[in-house]
Design goal:
mainly alpha; two-stranded antiparallel ribbon; 10 strands; globular
Length: about 300
Amino acid sequence: MQPPAMPDLFIPSPTVSAFELGPLTIRFYALCILAGIIVGTWLTARRLRARGGTTAQALDTVMWAVPFGIVGGRIYHVITDNQLYFGPGKDPWAALRIWEGGLGIWGAVALGLVGAAIGARRSGVTLAVFADAAAPGLLIAQGLGRWGNWFNNELYGGPTDLPWKLQIHNMNAATGQAVTAADGTPEVLGYFHPTFLYESLWCLAAAALLMFLDRKYHFGAGAVFAAYVVLYTSGRFAFELMRADPANIILGLRVNTWVSAMLLLTGIILFLILRPGPRSFVLDQGRTPVTAPSSNRRGDTP
C-alpha cells in the first residue's frame, strides 16, 4: 500500500482586495499602508524621545512627512510605470486613484524628506535627528505595507515549485475581486516566488539590525538614516532581480534595479562620511539641538 501523497503546498493569495463600508470602498492595500504609518510613527516618537525630543515634535514632523511621502510615492510610480495610465486605451485619471495601489518607495522617501524638513524646522528638531529616529520605523512601515501587494496579487517573482510558492489570481483592480472562470472559481495565473514576502521579512530584519547597531555604536548624526538606505537598497536590489511582474526595462534591467544600485552606492558613501561625526540630540523641548561625541556608548540617551 502506497502512502498518501503529500498535499501541494503553496501560499494562497486573497481573491478580494477591497470591501464595501456603506458608500465607501475600503482597500486592504490602503489599510496595510495605514498600519505601517501608525507603527512607524509610534517607534519614531519613542526613538526621538530617547534623543531628547518629545512625542509632539515627532507627530508634528510626521504630519508633514507622510502626505509629502504619499504624493512623492505616487508621482514616482506614475513616472516609472507610465504605460499603465497613458497611451491608447488607457485611463489617465487612474493615475490619481492612489487607493487602487501603486506607490514608489524612492519617491516617497525623497518627497517625504522634504516634508520632514519642513515639519522638523517648525517643531524645533534638526532633520538629521528626526531621520535617524525615523529610520527603523520607516523599514517596519515598508515591511507592513508590502502586505498590501499580497492583497492585490502583485509584486511576485518568477515561477517556482517551492513549498512556499505564491498563488496569484487574475485580479480586477476596478472591482477589487479576482476574475472568475466559467465554473465560478477564481482564475489562477500561476505560482511564483513571493517576493513581497521576501522584502517584508527583509525590512523587519533590517529594522531590528539597525536598532541594534544604533544602540551598540553611536553613529554620527544622519549616519543611521544612511545605514537604512544601505540595508534597504541591498535587499531591494536582490528582490528586483527576482521579480517577474511587468516593469519598464533599461539595458536589460528593471528601472528599480538601477535605482537600487545607485542609491546603495550613495548610501554607503554617506554612511562612511557621516559615521565618525558627532551624534545629535534634541534638548530644551527641541529648541536647542546639541551634539554628543560619537565615542559616547551609553545607548540611546545622552
